[in-house]
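yo, EAL domain-containing protein is done. seq:
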Amino acid sequence: MQRNKRTIHIALVATVLALNLFIAGLLAYTLEVAKERKEEEVRVTVENLSLLLDQSVSSSIREIDLSLREVQGDLERSLLEHGRLDHALLSERIARFHDWLAPIAEFKVTDAEGRVILGHAVTSDTRVSYADRSYFYEHRSADDGVTRASKLVYGRVAGTWGNVFSRRYNDASGQFAGVVTAVVPVAYFERLLSGLSLGSRGIALMRDLDMSLIARFPPLETDAGGVGSRGGSLELRDIVAAGVQAQSFYSAQTADGINRINAYRKLASMPAFVVVGWGEDDYLAQWHYDRWKAIVFFLTFCAVTLVAGGLLWRLVRATERANQRSRILLQNASDGIHITDAAGTVVEASDAFCRMIGHPRADVIGMNVTQWDAGFSADGLREIIERLLESSEVLTFETVYRRRDGGTFPVEITAFALEVDGRRVLFCSARDISARKSAEAEVRQLAYYDALTGLPNRRLLLERLEAAQAAGAKLGSRGALLFIDLDNFKTINDTVGHQQGDALLKEVASVLGRCVRKEDTVARLGGDEFVVMLENLDEREDAAARVAEAIGGKILQALRKTFAVGNCERRVSASIGVTLFGGEAGEALEEPLMRADLAMYQAKYAGRDAMRFFNPQMQADAQIRAELEAGLWSALEKGQFVLEYQPQVRGSAKVIGVEALVRWRHPERGLVSPAEFIPIAEENGLIVPLGRWVIETACAQLAAWASVPGRAELSIAVNVSARQFLQPDFVADVLGALERSGACAQRLEIELTESTLITDIEQIIARMEVLRAHGLRFSLDDFGTGYSSLAYLKRLPLDQVKIDRSFVRDILVDPNDAAIATMITVLGETLGLVVVAEGVETEAQRDCLLQIGCRAYQGFLFSRPLGAVQLEAFLDAMSPQAAAQSPR
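structure:
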């Protein structure tokens, strides 16, 4: 006893010491991690801000580039039509562009000798030449059709610093006629930098690749802070010299003497870079305060652990005396007695209990009840323990114990709570119950299960049906009963005997079990009558009926085979009656069974080997669906499918392509909506040959348009389902269709939906790359409505992304839809994709989309889907209008 106390005392002292050292180390580690995490957060923040600056500058420069192209086109058109520049008209056009982009750039135009002749603040008295500018030399020597961006230059007209973006324009003969320029003053970049929130010691600056300062915020009141001055830290110079695109770095020796974490980013659209920095004293202010609090906490913790250690030593001595008395009593108990704490962990156990679960006592102490109780879940055991601890009742219940070797056995537990050494514990007594449970299980098997097939009998079926009806009424869900009766089974019994008939019934039971879901019930009522109960179907009657119809059809098909019966073989079929139940309260228990029985007899009257619904409307709907499914294959063979084309328009009038939409012209029903037959085609596999026909037809149409002016440049977009795209021969089918028709591959566009991407992304990308190598283009349809990841999106070889009509429909009234449309447009432009908005029906929608940067549309505002002949007439009617309007 004394030795144990001495050991515990040493262990307690060592524990207190180790705990304090651990807390000291943990606090030091936590502070260091917090500092590193904060620095990493700052790096991410400044990197994101530098990226934001890059995107802001790039967005403005795209607008400048578009405007330069427009001015270039006006200049060349004036030279082509008049042989000279119409100064009045061109000045008015340039003035409009200047008003539009006044905060960003000023436009100037030079002649072939470099003299400034048009533009903002340019008059007849202006005598300025750009002939010595490097960009003027480059444009005059090369007609490469690109927009050039200069480094920082000093403006000779405005007398301010800025960056010049320029394009060459040619005369009617294609010779160099001059340069159109847009000067972006440094004040624009200063406004961009000043909009960032970087704390009191932050910095944002922009330099060209010669290290000349373009803008800085906050401004530095020294020569090194002047526009055009060259400078930069050693770290920054090394980064620029390395030619990296983006990098974060720490600077300790700056012009203003402030230590910072910085992010460098080379701009994508001009020869310059930005640096965004955050002052160390700003981002570590909270960390310094937390370090002081940690020191105070550690000193307090040391004092508390010393006091707690002394109290714990007194408790150990008292507990040791109590444990000795309890152990004597437990060792002589005959039942499996064990005492657990509030968490279910064993603190004492009798030898009988240890033998019961097959573990030595040293292992049992400290085990949790969840380690041997196999009858309740962890949550269930927790509820029982909490109930006993909160009351004074004695609870007797049954459960299942698990032995060390994995075997299980039923036990009866008597448990109650009591107070031991000032805490509530549970006293539990377990008794094995080698024989009573086995007898009860045998009685239940006889009462609830069919003796021949082992399936639930009528009694168990009705119990489950009652529970399913109650659940359906509560949740609003539907269930279904399938009453199955074998056709002509009496003849089999009469010819080969009841023994062989029973063997056949066992095989039928096995077949039924394989046709249903795990949660469904297959029961035998008696004789050759079986019932399948389907639970948790859709709350809509039509959807629930379709599931029941599908399973019933599967059963009919599975039973249409030859079974070995005695020494001969017999073909078997069945008649099935179907009814729905649930979804409403008050239905009598056996009513669904009676309805299914009546429907089964209707199937018998219909000639057997059939299925009938009790509800006449459901039967009619099922019949219509069956007729549609049968008619689809015939429609493909008889050429009843046609393609219509809906134009895709850029700006107000220019048709840039069409989307091919399949239609079924039924000889009796007329035009059948794709919403009716496409889902069926997806289910029965017709979508693959139908999709192949669509591609063949689209390629033939492209070939027919190839030699027709105004048609040859059109592209056709074809929707491809995931099932079709993943066919092994899909790539060969597409390339074969192009080869047979002679169509241009660059004019064929494959549209994929987001749902396609969740199937097998790697295989999809591989196939897209193969087709892309042959010239085909790809468009992502319904973007934003599915599951696509941005990480996957940037890997896909796409050319176009479409804004789904669900976002366009309410774009004028729903800010969320407008925000999503804007995000898709910006994302598409960032990834270099064409963005097309679907479902554009009003001028207001088109104008709103134009304002957010989307310039391509598809919808009823421009045209409904048209047949090939009507489309050609539409294109002919659009041609004069397209020629009369300038592109937007």
